[in-house]
Amino acid sequence: MIDIQNLSFSYTAKPFITDVTFQVAEGEIFGFLGPSGAGKSTLQKILTGQLRAYGGSVRVLGAEVKAHGRDFYERIGVDFEFPALYDKLTARENLRFFASLYSGAVRDADALLASLALLPDADKKVSDYSKGMKSRLGFLRALVNDPDVLFLDEPTSGLDPANARLMKNLILEEKGKGKTIILTTHNMQDAQELCDRVAFIVGGSVKALDTPHALIMRKGAGIVRYTYLSDGCEKNGACPISDTGADALLQTLLREGRIRTIHSAEPNLGDIFMEVTGRALE
Amino acid sequence: MRLWTLTLGDVRFQWKYGFYLLYAIFAGVYLLALSAVPQSARQIVATVMIYTDPAAMGLFFMGAIILLEKSQRVHCALSISPVRAWEYMLGKLLSLAAIGMLVGLILAIAGGVESLPLCLAGIFFMSVLCSACGLIAAERSRTLNQFILLSVPFEILLCLPPILLLFGFESPWLMLHPGVAAVWLIYGDAPSALLCLLSLAVWCVPALWLCKKSVRRYFASAGGGML
Are residues A228 and A212 in the same domain? Predict the structure, then answer.
């Protein structure tokens, strides 16, 4: 569905994206994970044909992006990080207007609005929407043409947990329909939960690429953290899960019944990102 | 079909932002002013009113329209839709020409211009030309002040020769100027209506070509680079 070979791109004389190569299969959710300014959004813009002065090869939907005409946009949907909607139009009017720009079959505006709990506010002007409501509506705008490939830039940014959940369910629903989804985010929970594979992007290049599980397992098993009482004070201890039998302090504390709390902690994508790239995500 | 959708979309955009209300007020004020003008001078005054406002409104209003779109990032959404640059451009130009022709027609009837069809043709071509110039200036502007500065050269180029004509400087060569050709058509006593129409149509060709290039740049700016 998407095939990138030796991609390079620059806004100035200084290279920004360098030697990026990867493929995304049909029906896959692929995540670009990286801190702000890492080149994630630039990669998305190259894939959507908004930046065409790139080097290497970028093939989306079977053809080089540079060679695609405007009909390419009949088959893709793009959700921007910031809302791109008519403020003075209502949510329903916005969706109907954008849907009317496509020549193929489009989705019903009301059904879309209902899917993200916006139907009760369908006749409200977008200027009266909250930031989170605009984000949800922007996401729905990307779905109006029932695209084969969906590009999402920080889709859950600014959403409360309940609406973020709704949106993530909808993303998984789209995947269930066989849509290919490119998710650009610096939210490791979203990436871990939604993506089949993720690419760590830092400084315009891919530092690691694999399934979230495989990346996490690179670091090995998790660790055991515990707290115990010593001289009337609570202290902390930790050891790898594999070494619990050999940790003398832990064994002593268990025998003497001085353990107050104990739990295992697995690394997450954020930890792995930090380890691989030496940078924090947020 | 998409051109029709875009044109209607622009009409709705202009309606929602109160452009039509503003124009209804302008038309009312112009009609009042015309009624106060002696019958003998009414036609020339109506011509000046039509030329400087309904026909040229795109030159002023396009700045507001494009800057509003930029502030709402709507051009980002359009840049990743199947909309072609020429469809977007014509949608804007035709929607402004429609309101310009409507107000121009009312003023032309009130002013008693000689030929309504020629007058409407003059308004249409001049509106297309001015709106294209307005779009070119607006695409390069980030603020209203920038737009006003950038549109001044277009205003001077389009208005100076017609002013010369009004002050009695007549020459058939002036038909080659689109503004003069439009004024003659609106007034209704062009030396050659066909040549005036031809002159306007010819001027529209490079204006539309440059305007289309501006729209492509406008869409590309949504992605941060040139398409």
Answer: no
Rounded Cα–Cα distance for residues B72 and A80 (Å): 12
Asked whether the beta carbons of residue A53 and residue B226 sit closer than 8 angstroms, the reply is yes
Nearest partner of B46 among B145, B170, B159, B188, judged by Cα: B188
> Taking Cα atoms as reference points, which of A165, A164, A104, A116 lies closest to residue A141?
A116
Chain B contact probe: residue of A54, A97, A131 with most B CBs at under 10 A = A97
Residue B69 and residue A95: Cα distance in Å, rounded?
16
Give the range of the structural domain holding residue A249, as residue numbers without chain letter.
222-266
Residue A277 lies in a domain: no
Domain limits, chain B: 2-223
Q: What pLDDT is recorded for position A101?
A: 94
Low-confidence residues of chain A: pLDDT under 50: none
In tens, the pLDDT along B155-213 reads: 888 888 888 877 777 777 777 889 989 998 998 877 788 988 999 999 999 999 999 99
Domain harbouring A127, CATH code: 3.40.50.300
* In a domain? residue A275: no
Amino acid identity, position A150: L
Alpha carbon A116 to chain centroid, angstroms: 18
Those of residues 187-226 in B touching chain A at CB distance below 8 A are: 220, 222-226
Nearest CA-CA distance, residue A143 and chain B, Å:
12
Q: Are residues A136 and A254 in the same domain?
A: no
Q: Which residue positions in chain B have pLDDT lower than 50?
A: 225-227
Closest-CA distance, A73 to chain B, in angstroms, reads 5
Percentage of residues of chain B with pLDDT beyond 90? 58
Nearest CA in chain A to B12: A89
Is residue A167 situated within a structural domain?
yes
Do A203 and A242 belong together in one domain? no
Contact A244, A56 (CB under 8 A): no
Residues A258 and A157 in one domain: no
A198, HSE (Cβ side, Cα atoms, 13 Å): 30
Domain count, chain A: 2
Question: How close B130 gets to chain A, by Cα (Å)?
Answer: 25
Is residue A248 domain-resident? Answer: yes
Q: Which chain A residues touch B if contact means CB-CB below 8 Å? A: 11, 42, 45, 48-53, 70-71, 73-74, 76, 78, 80, 82-89, 93, 97-98, 100-103, 141
Least CA distance to B88: which residue of chain A?
A101
